[in-house]
UniProtKB/TrEMBL annotation:
<dbReference type="InterPro" id="IPR036390">
    <property type="entry name" value="WH_DNA-bd_sf"/>
</dbReference>
<keyword id="KW-0238">DNA-binding</keyword>
<dbReference type="Pfam" id="PF01047">
    <property type="entry name" value="MarR"/>
</dbReference>
<protein>
    <submittedName>
        <fullName>MarR family transcriptional regulator</fullName>
    </submittedName>
</protein>
<dbReference type="InterPro" id="IPR000835">
    <property type="entry name" value="HTH_MarR-typ"/>
</dbReference>
<dbReference type="GO" id="GO:0003677">
    <property type="term" value="F:DNA binding"/>
</dbReference>
<dbReference type="GO" id="GO:0003700">
    <property type="term" value="F:DNA-binding transcription factor activity"/>
</dbReference>
<dbReference type="InterPro" id="IPR036388">
    <property type="entry name" value="WH-like_DNA-bd_sf"/>
</dbReference>
<dbReference type="InterPro" id="IPR023187">
    <property type="entry name" value="Tscrpt_reg_MarR-type_CS"/>
</dbReference>
<feature type="coiled-coil region">
    <location>
        <begin position="107"/>
        <end position="134"/>
    </location>
</feature>
<keyword id="KW-0175">Coiled coil</keyword>
<keyword id="KW-0805">Transcription regulation</keyword>
<dbReference type="InterPro" id="IPR052526">
    <property type="entry name" value="HTH-type_Bedaq_tolerance"/>
</dbReference>
<feature type="domain" description="HTH marR-type">
    <location>
        <begin position="13"/>
        <end position="141"/>
    </location>
</feature>
<keyword id="KW-0804">Transcription</keyword>
Length: 147
């Protein structure tokens, strides 16, 4: 059985998928001295942006299982990047919140990645940068209905 040729739409989808994946990996490599993995950094950034929350809620937001989030949170607690506190709405539950050092880590790693992305954008032609700017709203829309 032979594979069917890609339609132009399939080709665009494949190219977009590969380009975004490669760009994401390249930007992560730029933070090669990271003390925590991408999952931990993402969870920590979410806590900074959205505030303290239960680990289960954080797992839903990050799109991972509760046990996986528990492992990430335990690691972040050990490293001193997050702390657990009793949930005022339910004393049996705990909230997870970033510490000062956790917030500093995220801001530092974000700055490194933003500088790396800016350097990549600077290498583009003026027309290419304009095309990226034009496509930005559409790319943001692709992430707005994640579930």
């Amino acid at each position: 059985m032979s594979a069917q040729p890609e339609s132009p739409q399939d080709s665009t989808t494949t190219r977009l998928y590969l380009a975004l994946g490669r760009l994401n990996r390249a930007l992560r490599r730029d933070a090669k001295d990271a003390t925590i993995g991408h999952g931990g950094l993402s969870a920590l950034a979410t806590l900074i942006e959205q505030g303290p929350q239960r680990a289960g809620t954080l797992a839903e937001t990050e799109g991972i299982t509760a046990p996986a989030m528990t492992r990430i949170v335990n690691s972040l607690v050990e490293l001193g990047y997050v702390e657990r506190t009793p949930d005022p709405a339910d004393g049996r539950a705990q909230l997870v919140a970033p510490t000062t050092s956790g917030t500093a880590l995220v801001l530092d790693k974000r700055a490194v990645r933003l500088r790396a992305l800016q350097e990549r954008l600077d290498r583009l032609s003026e027309d290419e940068r304009a095309a990226v700017t034009t496509a930005l709203a559409a790319l943001e829309n692709l992430t707005s209905e994640m579930s």
